[in-house]
Amino acid sequence: MKPRENSNQEIEIKPFGSYLEVDNEGYIINPASLKKIQEEWKPVIQDVIEAYKGHFGKTLKNVYIRGSVAKGEAIKGLSDIDSFAYIDLPKASIDTDWEEEAEGKIKQKHPFIEGVELMCRPFVIGPMNIILLNQSVCVYGNPLDVQRVKPGKEMMIHIPNLEKRVEILEQKLNNAHSEEEAKSACIWFAKDMLRTGFELVMERVNKYTRDLYPCYKTFAEYYPEKEPQMREMLHYALNPVSDIQKIRELRDRFAPWIIEEVKKQYPI
């Protein structure tokens, strides 16, 4: 996700977002549907498909869209296009160097979108892919059959790699050579902490969401003493800063605690 161009306009925290519904057996109901996609977003999706096709040709098997666009809840100026594609190649052969340039071209052509995420995966269905597929819609190729999932450990993708992801932030900051790159790292980390915080309480509430406000709100109900820090994360996810030292301070105030809490709640 690219940071917004007009960084002087602060975005206010508002109670946007929802939890995924579950059926009578407790399985997640996929909220994404082709019928829900708003008309003005369809040309953007087509350009995303063409970007994948142009680079991978016949090895492109499927393209999926998730998030607010797939749920028909996209908001101009706030929502981005979250996409991923399955490529019929080994992981080592999948080139990703083209993605950033392609994302920039799509964003430039459609300035009302917040950003674009292109993500390429080998044609193998693993645990993380199952989680994504249960909340995404196929917009190119044949939809894949996927097993159903329930809220709980099998839907945790942040907690299992928490310490590694904190290390990745430092790599991102070290490689940030512009304000935009530093802001992107800030957004990435803040969102990561919000979703990790929600995963801490997901089994207790028996719900699932990736939406930022419900992540913050649900976490705060179980950890009220940490509410100010998590609200700060939400603020910086919406209003990123380019000050690398400030981002590191944000990390150092919160990451050590949540790492220890995860170890306490989910000991190896």
Explain this structure to me?
By secondary structure, the chain is an alpha/beta fold. Strands 1, 2, 3, 4 and 5 form a five-stranded mixed sheet that branches. The chain has nine helices and five strands. Helix 5 (162-174) packs antiparallel against helix 9, helix 6 (179-205) packs across helix 7 and helix 6 runs parallel beside helix 9. The chain folds into two domains: 34-140, Beta Polymerase, domain 2, CATH 3.30.460.10; 153-265. It has helices at residues 42-56, 68-71, 99-109, 127-133, 162-174, 179-205, 212-222, 227-238, 244-265; strands spanning 60-66, 81-87, 116-117, 120-122, 136-140. The chain starts with 41 loop residues before the first helix and ends with a helix. Helices cover 46% and strands 9% of the residues.
Mean pLDDT: 90
Annotation field: number of helices: 9
Detail the poorly predicted runs: 1-7
The biggest sheet amounts to: 5 strands, mixed
Provide the structure class. Answer: alpha/beta
Number of domains: 2
The proportion of strand residues reads 5-15%
Helical proportion? Answer: 40-55%
Order of helices and strands: HEHEHEEHEHHHHH
Q: How many strand units?
A: 5
Distance between the termini: 32 Å
- Categorize the overall geometry: globular
Radius of gyration: 18 Å
Write the layout of secondary structure elements.
Elements: H1 42-56, E1 60-66, H2 68-71, E2 81-87, H3 99-109, E3 116-117, E4 120-122, H4 127-133, E5 136-140, H5 162-174, H6 179-205, H7 212-222, H8 227-238, H9 244-265
